[in-house]
UniProtKB/TrEMBL annotation:
Cleavable signal peptide: 1-26
Lineage top rank: taxon: Bacteria
Protein's name in the database: Tetratricopeptide repeat protein
UniProt keyword terms in alphabetical order: Signal
Length: 742
């Protein structure tokens, strides 16, 4: 089976602090594509270590710590300390033997090729453990020492002795995880002594799919499945092989037809697709072979030899779904739910039937009501699935829901004009995602030592969708959230959606501010509470930066903890006023004053003041948080659909620079030279044509750029007024470098 969850997890500290939106232009981790596998007839945790969790339960009970895992040194140390305190010599003896077995002398680093000396030391440890296990006479740890004995024999490659010990002793033991592990080792011995079919059946019966995957690697095709079925139609191996085949078809469709895999783009070639399939250990399956499997599986069901026809019929339906024959899939999956199979198989059929219905049914009130029931059922199954201690971040039933919602319902609702329904479903998925998933805004809150909370409210699919929603539609959606919807599916989503009015008023107000619609933004921003604002990750910046200070006169530093949960971090200041609201009020007042003025020195001073505020509120300013919720050093232009605050500042500075006031003119010239808008005054980077790297030490000038011309004007001003200029001009290293090449 190939990987179940294909995405890169939470990123850097900067992402944790700012919670940058996926649409903010930042360098962010690859977003999930919600195309996890639909077909799952066994819990995905069975693809990991089959027995460790069961053995850990003993140590968890002993320590009274449900999170204890003996594989970690800290847990082993705690066990040994407690055993010494209680003077439990028998337990101490067993722990020393167990620690020797799981230590580095026996279990080599997988990245290192062992030397002869290491191998000799390993064998010596195993011989010692073998003797220790033989002389143990107690009853308390008899099962554990028997397992240790088989482990030692297996490690020494004395497979026949190990098998004899299993048949004479192991299989007569009382049922326990230790007996199961001994049987697992017995299967390993069978495999290594040529009795591979017997080994495979044991691995399959034990649901050790990690081992089984290796053993049946040559059967991962229709021909392999047919070969196993022809001799053992009820082989447990077929459960794995059928699931693997169906999921390989989905992987093939996703990668080769939809170009859907991490970091995919339109320039991907067949080689890129092949490399991804190899990386995920998936097998490419042609449409022809998929159709041949469907025909074969129909024959299996018709023959009646299989005890689990539900498995085969569901595979047929899932493949029909992948091949976009949705009506046919509906028919096959409905039949599958009525056939014999394990509870997991029947649940699998029902889940895929629900996912397929998104494409096979008419979306009306009746369907929405039925689908609501199915999604509630998926929620319940998801909660059951997550009880496994070895699960990945999400479970199978959550994956099915995500595929239904993100890749089916939301695009359909958006296309049909049901914007509110689409958004509320996204919000519901956002807030019910498992902790530390890619999209749960409230489950992954972190605490700073001043008791403020950071959150992920401003990144992810829901925030992206809100950011792209037209303002009028966003206002309508905000109003929609205040009242329970009548539609059953929308009501189901609405109950679990994020409905804090502060969030939406702030978002709408910020969108209006970014469009320079300051007066319209004020009523929305007035409704946002300070307690809410202090939960935002931009709060430390908003609390410590003043938009009235000229950015070109220096960057305003912000006190931030080294890590969001660093106990030694400084106490962060809290907002006492809504800075965005203040900014909008100031901008409305200043613009009105400026517009009423006739050309004059006073108007020029007002222009400079306005330029300061426009620039500080831009993505280049200290107060970038006015217009957006995250920032990146990669951002080099204003966001689409927003006012260009930098251009506004340049225009106003173009007026103030004509002042007769020496200081005002000096500051304006300096500001115009400081601002980079468009091309800078010199090229920085690698030039393929010249095969050279350019920077301040090796300049390649761009005389056509606005900044170059502004630098030239400032240089001329300095030259003409050298005795009078302020220190910020005369001590500017960049200006001095510019003057050297004039």
């Amino acid at each position: 089976m190939v990987t179940f969850k294909r995405f890169i997890g939470i990123g850097s500290l900067l992402t944790a602090l700012l919670a940058i939106s996926l649409s903010a232009g930042a360098c962010v981790p690859e977003a999930p594509r919600h195309n996890n596998y639909l077909f799952s007839v066994f819990n995905r945790s069975l693809m990991s270590d089959r027995f460790t969790d069961a053995t850990d339960k003993y140590w968890q009970q002993y320590l009274g710590n449900p999170d204890a895992q003996y594989r970690w040194d800290v847990c082993r140390d705690e066990v040994m300390k407690k055993a010494r305190r209680q003077k439990d010599a028998e337990l101490l003896g067993y722990c020393r033997s167990l620690n020797a077995y799981i230590g580095s002398d026996v279990n080599f680093n997988a990245w290192d090729y062992p030397t002869r000396q290491k191998i000799a030391r390993r064998n010596a440890v195993l011989h010692n453990l073998l003797q220790t296990s033989k002389i143990y006479q107690g009853k308390r740890f008899r099962a554990q020492y028997n397992l240790l004995r088989m482990r030692a024999l297996f490690g020494l490659k004395r497979y026949q002795e190990a098998m004899t010990f299993w048949t004479s002793t192991g299989q007569r033991m009382q049922p326990s995880v230790y007996r199961d592990m001994m049987r697992n080792l017995y299967a390993g011995c069978l495999w290594r002594t040529g009795r591979r079919d017997q080994a495979i059946e044991i691995y399959a019966a034990q649901q050790d799919y990690q081992s089984l995957k290796y053993c049946v690697r040559g059967y991962r095709s229709l021909a392999g499945i047919q070969k196993v079925y022809s001799t053992r139609p009820n082989s447990a191996t077929l459960v794995y092989l059928v699931q693997d085949f169906v999921n390989n078809v989905q992987e093939t469709m996703d990668v080769y037809e939809l170009n859907s895999f991490p970091y995919a783009d339109y320039n991907n070639t067949s080689k890129d697709h092949d490399e991804w399939m190899k990386e995920t250990d998936a097998k490419k399956v042609t449409t022809t072979e998929a159709n041949r499997f469907i025909d074969f599986a129909r024959g299996v069901v018709a023959q009646g030899k299989t005890s689990v026809p539900c498995l085969w019929q569901t595979a047929i339906g899932c493949l029909e779904h992948q091949l976009r024959r949705y009506d046919k899939a509906k028919e096959d999956l409905a039949k599958a739910m009525k056939l014999a199979g394990t509870p997991r198989m029947k649940d699998n059929a029902r889940a895929i039937y629900a996912a397929n219905s998104v494409f096979s049914e008419q979306h009306n009130v009746t369907y929405d009501k039925w689908l609501t029931g199915e999604m509630r059922w998926l929620d319940a199954k998801s909660a059951e699935d997550r009880k496994s201690l070895t699960l990945y971040e999400t479970d199978h039933y959550r994956d099915v829901e995500e595929r239904m919602v993100y890749n089916g319902l939301v695009p359909m609702f958006m296309a049909a004009g049901r914007t509110n329904a689409a958004l509320v479903l996204l919000s519901r998925m956002n807030d019910t995602a498992p902790d530390f998933s890619e999209c749960n805004a409230r489950a992954v809150n972190f605490e700073t030592d001043d008791d403020t909370k950071g959150n992920w409210d401003y990144q992810g699919f829901y925030f992206d969708a809100l950011s792209k929603t037209p303002l009028d539609s966003l206002k309508a959606y905000s109003a929609y959230l205040r009242k329970q919807p009548a539609d059953s599916l929308e009501h189901y989503a609405w109950q679990q959606a994020y409905r804090d009015a502060n969030y939406y008023n702030d978002l709408i107000g910020t969108r209006l501010l970014a469009q320079a619609r300051f007066a319209e933004a004020i009523p929305y921003l007035e409704k946002v509470g300070l307690d809410f604002l202090n939960t935002q990750n931009i709060a430390p910046y908003a609390a410590q930066r003043d938009y009235n200070k000229e950015r070109w006169m220096g960057k305003q530093r912000v006190a931030l903890p080294e890590y969001p949960i660093d106990e030694k971090s400084t106490r962060l200041p809290r907002l006492t006023v809504n800075r965005k609201l203040q900014y909008c009020r100031d901008m409305v007042s200043l613009i009105q004053q400026y517009d009423l003025m006739r050309p004059s020195e006073e108007r020029m001073r007002k222009a400079y003041k306005l330029a300061t505020l426009w620039y500080q509120g831009s993505y280049e300013g200290d107060c970038w948080w006015m217009k957006q919720y995250g920032i990146s050093t990669m951002q080099d232009s204003t966001a689409v659909g927003t006012e260009d605050f930098v251009a506004k500042a340049i225009s106003l500075l173009g007026e103030s620079v004509r002042s007769n006031d020496f200081t005002l003119r000096e500051k304006s010239l300096y500001a115009l030279a400081f601002i980079r808008h468009g091309d800078p005054w010199f090229f920085s980077g690698w030039d393929d044509k010249t095969q050279k790297y350019y920077d301040l030490d090796d300049l390649r000038l761009l005389p056509h750029s606005r900044q170059y011309k502004a630098m030239a004007s400032l240089a001329a001003f300095w030259k003409e007024n050298a005795p009078r200029v302020d220190n910020f001009v005369s001590t500017c290293d960049i200006l001095k470098r510019f003057c050297k090449i004039q």
